[in-house]
Structure formats: C-alpha cells, structure tokens
Amino acid sequence: MTYQTAVFDLDGTLLNTLEDLADAVNYSLKKNKMPLCTITQVCQYVGNGIVKLMERAVPSGKDNPVFEQALSDFKEYYAEHCHDKTALYPGVLALLQNLKKKGVKMAVVSNKADFAVKELMPVYFPNLLDVALGEMEEMGIRKSRHRIWFIRHWQSYGVIRKMLFILVIRMLT
Length: 173
Description:
Low-confidence stretches: 156-173
Structural class: alpha/beta
Mean pLDDT: 82
Largest sheet: 4 strands, parallel
Order of helices and strands: EEHHHHEHEHEHE
Number of strands: 6
Radius of gyration: 17 Å
Shape: elongated
Helix content: 40-55%
Number of helices: 7
C-alpha cells in the first residue's frame, strides 16, 4: 500500500527532547525551592503534557501551594530553552526529506505544548511538514482533539484514506 499521509508524534519519535524537558523541570523546581529530579525520573514523568509532567515532578502535585508558579516557571524557561539540547534522532531528517520528495503529506500531532511545537518546527523541519499541532491545555485542547480535527480537516482533501500514523512507544532500559 502506498501512503499519501504520515502523521508523527514528536517527543521520543522524531526528536529527543528529554534533556531540555529535564532542565526546564529542574529550573522550575530549584527556583521554587523544591528537590530536583533526575533525568530518569523526568523520563518516567513525560508523555501526558506539561501540566501532568509538572504535577508528577512537584511534591504533592497540584495540591502544592506553589504548583501554579512552578508550572509558569517551567513554561517560561522551556519557551526560551526548548531546543538547547534537543536533537533529531538518527535518520529522521533523511526519512522526512524522502517522504516529501515522494509527495507524502506529513504532520506532527503532539501532546507537547503548542508554543514549543511551533518553536521547534522551523529549527528541525524547515519546509518539511504540512501541519504541526501541539496541546493548548489552557484552551482545553489536548492531542486527542487535535487528531480528530486533523482527520476531519484532511478528509476534506481526500487524503485520509491512505494515512499512516507513526508513533513510537518509548521503552525504558
């Protein structure tokens, strides 16, 4: 089967963003006088968006009186440092370039904050992706809703019937 569309997750699939996420978590925790997390802990905490990441990293989560401040500090730091250590996984750029050359429509639908998705796209994937969507938690828009929007939007172009969702399950070793 020839696919016309490929939809990718971002973190852990196309980009290794773990170190930048860990740095942002620890910046926030340190600024708010809380114990820092190891990179292994942060690795275990990621995968459900920024609010859930910080809920897991902050002692007592949302019940902590400085949780909202810690979350705000995380977002502020990560917005400025989201690609300090982030790197493409080997072979990703060549794969995307090859798919583009073959006329495959490509998108990223991520639970990463939309501001970070928009920041990372031109740095790592200039002119390669047709659509890039991230979570907008403050508006109640999570990745699952983006997928629904995405499918409805691209159905109107007749592209959806031959679509491949490419997701990688990260395994801790």
